[in-house]
Amino acid sequence: MRYLPKSPAERQEMLAAIGAKSIDELFSSIPERFRLREPLKIPGPYSEAEIIQYFKDRAAENSNGYTVFLGRAFTIICAPW
After folding, report:
1. Given 10, 32, 46, 78, which is the most exposed site by the fewest CB atoms within 10 A?
2. Which secondary structure element, helix H or strand E, spans residue 49, and what is its range?
3. Distant-in-sequence, close-in-space partners of 26: CB < 8 Å, separation ≥ 6
């Protein structure tokens, strides 16, 4: 799924759909001590191709030496007692 930024009008429409008047109201249930006080220090901005490559590179770092079984079939074997 691609990330598509929303316009201010679209954000207001989404907030209205859930009954919130603002982003602050949406997150008001989170105690103040747990909220970010400054923006995250992350690199960027990246193009879509750059961010996809960034995450592929991070995934390769994290999966080194592991066998992947996703997408493989399995068989239920019934053995008589």
Report:
1. 78
2. helix 48-62
3. 15, 18, 20
- Compute the distance between CA of residue 81 and CA of residue 79 in angstroms, rounded to an integer: 6
Count Cα neighbours of 1 within 13 Å in the Cβ-side half-sphere. Answer: 3
The model's pLDDT over 46-58, given as tens digits with 9 standing for 90+, comes to 888 898 898 899 8
Number of independent structural domains in the chain: 1
Per the domain annotation, does 69 fall within a domain? no
* Dihedral angle, C-alpha 14, 3, 36, 20, nearest 10 °: 0
Mind listing the pLDDT tens digit for each residue in 66-80?
776 666 566 666 666
**N-term to C-term CA, the chain:** 48
Is pTM beyond 0.70? Reply is no
Q: Is residue 25 part of a domain?
A: yes
Domain that holds residue 17: 7-36
